[in-house]
Amino acid sequence: MIVDRIARLNTLRVILASASPRRKEILTTLGLRFEVEPSRFEETLDKSQFAGPDAYVLENAKLKALDVCTRMSDQDYDLVIGSDTIVVQDGQILEKPVSEAHAFEMLSALSGRSNTVMSAVALYTRCGPGGSLALARLFCEQTQVFFAELSPALIWSYIKTQEPMDKAGAYGIQGVGGCFVERIVGDYFAVMGLPQHRLCKELAALMDEGQLEAK
Questions:
Q1: pLDDT value of residue 36
Q2: Per-position b or e across 123-157, b if 16+ CB within 10 A of its CB
Q3: Marked catalytic residue, from 67, 76, 78, 84
Q4: Domain ranges of the chain
Q5: Gene3D superfamilies from the xrefs (predicted)?
């Protein structure tokens, strides 16, 4: 999607509005040059005010990116990438666990069942310092993840690795938690935190439309 455009993309100043090492890894794998400016947006939105989990995660991604855009308003940049990921089961949003007991509760609920990972992305573009800011793209990719049966002892052993504690849904598919996953339907990278295929597709479209112009 962007293999033939990466040299032109790398003439732009691209900002990743996230401190997530997984998102950084995904962008780095693409060969994209970018800077990391973590969003300071506090994820305190009232979930009950949204029509569904997808609307909630889209708003989080948008506000994360917008926070960075606002703080960098006097700087020259071309693109800000904001993203948010949640795990949903039975209509309930599972974000990062707040304690080991909470992680155990989440993983017990996921055991032997499927869950849906929603990863939303907001792409803001701007023409020069002080230039007009535009929400060029806002999208969400959903991936179904099927878990094996997990014993309480296995869950606690996993929690003791501390891997679940900074992950939505209390598991990381790219780490030890991946051994619990029997199969997925959708984008593996979206489960990691950034839907690689869709992102590349949208970046290519923005370049073709002239919304991202190489310098």
A1: 98
A2: bbbbeeeeeeeeebbbbbbbbebebeebeeeebee
A3: 84
A4: 6-208
A5: 3.90.950.10
